[in-house]
Amino acid sequence: MGNPVAINISNEETWPLRNLVLRPGRDLSACQWPGDTDETTQHYGTSIDGQIVAIGSLYVAAHDCAPGPDVWQLRGMAVDPDHRGMQLGGQLLDHMIRDARDRLGAATIWCNARIRAVTLYERAGFECVSEPFEIEGVGPHRVMRLALK
C-alpha cells in the first residue's frame, strides 16, 4: 500500500464516499449538496494508490457561531470503512485547516460534527459551541468552531 496523499478533488469525486459513509442506502442525488459547485468551494481527498479513501469539503459560509468575513464551513468528512484506523481523517483535516488558513485566508472554520466525530475535531483544536441537536435522517450533531486568526 502506498503513502496517503492529500489532494484537491472535484465535486463529483466526493460522491462515492459521501454515499457510502454519510448517506448510505440513498440515491446519489442525496450526495450533491448546495454550494458544491460554487467557485469558492474546495473539495479535498486523500488518495492511496490512486484511490480516494478520505474526503472533506470547505464552503464559504458564515454562521451565528462565527459571524463576519472569512468564515468557512467544513462539511462531508468521511473515510472509507476499509481504511479506518489509519488516522486518515485527522491527517486530511489537518491539511484542510492549513490550506484554509494559509491559502484561503480563513479566519474561522465551523462544522456540524456528528457526535461520534467530536473528538476528531477537538484534537484539531475545534471547540463545541452548541448543545447536541438532530439532523433529520442523519443523526445527532454539535456545532463546532475553530478560530484561525
Structure write-up:
The radius of gyration is 14 Å and the shape is globular. With 149 residues, the protein is an alpha+beta fold. The model has no long low-confidence stretch (mean pLDDT 94). Strand 7 (133-135) and strand 8 (139-147) form a beta hairpin. The protein has a single domain (5-147), classed as 3-Layer(aba) Sandwich (Aminopeptidase). It has three helices and eight strands; from the N terminus they run βαβββαβαβββ. Helices cover 22% and strands 34% of the residues.
What is the highest CATH level, the class?
Alpha Beta
**The CATH architecture:** 3-Layer(aba) Sandwich
CATH topology name:
Aminopeptidase
Number of domains: 1
Written as H for each helix and E for each strand, in order along the chain, the element string is EHEEEHEHEEE
Task: Report the uncertain regions.
Answer: none
Task: Please provide the count of β strands.
Answer: 8
Helices, by number, come to: 3
Helix content: 10-25%
- What is the percentage of strand-forming residues? 25-35%
Q: How many whole angstroms does the radius of gyration measure? A: 14 Å
Mean pLDDT: 94
What distance separates the N and C termini? 37 Å
Question: Could you say which overall geometry the principal axes of the C-alpha atoms support?
Answer: globular
Summarize the biggest pleated sheet. Answer: 8 strands, mixed
